[in-house]
Amino acid sequence: MSSHKANNQKQIELSPEVVRMAQIRASRQGLQFRQELARLVAEEAVVDLDCELGLLLENELSMNQSDVLAASLGVSDIVVNGHRLDVRAIDEDGEVVITRALVGSPYLSMGSLLVKLEGVHGGTVVGHLSSGAWLKAEDGLRDADPIRVPVSLGDFNFAEFMVELTNKAVLNLPGASKLVNFKTDVNELINEKGRLIVARQKQIFSYLCSHWSEETMAAVEAIGYKLPAARVTKVLLAAGRWNAVVEKASDKLAVRFTKLSKDEIRHQVMAVGERFGGEIKGPAFRSELLQQLAASELARSSTVPVNVAQSVLAKVMAGVSAADAVKGLVKNAVAVDLALSIKNKRQAAVGFMAATADEIGMAFQQLALQPAYATHSAADSGVDSINEALALLSATDMADTIKACDREMAEL
């Protein structure tokens, strides 16, 4: 067994779109979501290597292209320069798991790449488990399925490993015995595996490996995989939980973003979910959603251009005081101070409201008591500048809304 923690490991980041596609495939076909992510990480890790190494992914040769085999047997492979490599995600217990029918087959002759996932947004190829290690783990087992192997991490250089692997000759193992009735035998392996002894499972799967082609895959897909009732229930429950979370989040957010309808908020939650998956508590999900909602809210409530309102809001979110952030956009500093005084005097005013003559007079009177304002008059301040500053100060209140919503979403 050679399993590793690389000297030059590079974490692979998966785009939200790729993650969402993996989530859709997993839920619709009955695949394990984490396993699908691990395979995508391995693919990206190969693509990310120096092109001068001459490593070429051949996805059309992968047995994982078959939804049926991926769902029923957990087939999860990549093919690089004609060499097939299984890919396994390391679970929370530090173990990798595989269906027993795959062990000892041509599919596993090059062993397994091991991937450590980082949440749902990426991971790192951290090592390799040889086919011999899988056989050793299986030795002595009776009916245990799947097989679990603990992973110990050491040194590993992914680029060097891949170059060394692809320089080896592809072994053409003896072909498996022809199946008496392809449709019947393969259907038993896929949909009634528990009725077959392990040796028979291996024989049927080895035949598929040895004869893998577009025609074989088409024949397998035509047989289909009958997702067990328990798995169907699990998928439906997951969808139900997601819908419940969306509704709960929409209810909470509607209280804060009063210019938007609940349907509009729900639509934005679902749209962000399409990009980031169902991890609504994740920082990236929360940040993206709240920024979008804030922009929509400001577009309907602010009298200044949305991009300007967002600019001043971003500064406040970064720690700049509201007064300083607005002074960076309004040239008349006195107008900003007058606007801030007016805003502080108001009681529970919602959104922007133009300053009245009385408010301006009172604000100037208060500020004129301070030496710094002794040379200014109300006319110098400019009513338009005061109202512009008031509108921008009102936009900065969105920072408190975002922070409050962020806390609430983290607790969903």
In brief:
The chain has 18 helices and seven strands.
How much of the sequence lies in strands comes to 5-15%
* Uncertain residue segments: 1-7, 371-381
Mean pLDDT: 83
Structural class: alpha+beta
Assembly state (oligomeric): single chain
Biggest beta sheet summary: 5 strands, mixed
Placed side by side, the strands forming the largest sheet appear as 1-6-5-3-2
Count of DSSP E strands? 7
Classify the helix fraction into a percent range. 40-55%
The Cα radius of gyration reads 30 Å
From N to C, what is the helix and strand string? Answer: EHHHEEEEEHEHHHHHHHHHHHHHH
User: How many H/I helical runs?
Assistant: 18
Bulk shape: elongated
Description:
The structure is a single chain. By secondary structure, this protein is an alpha+beta fold. The chain contains 18 helices and seven strands. It has helices spanning 16-29, 33-47, 67-73, 131-138, 158-166, 182-191, 198-210, 214-223, 229-256, 262-276, 283-301, 306-317, 322-327, 333-345, 357-368, 378-381, 383-396, 398-410; strands spanning 12-13, 77-80, 83-89, 95-98, 112-117, 122-129, 147-150. The strands form two sheets. The chain has a five-stranded mixed β-sheet with strand order 1-6-5-3-2. The chain has a two-stranded antiparallel sheet with strand order 4-7. Strand 5 and strand 6 (122-129) form a beta hairpin. The longest helix has 28 residues, at 229-256. The radius of gyration is 30 Å and the shape is elongated. The relative contact order is 0.09.
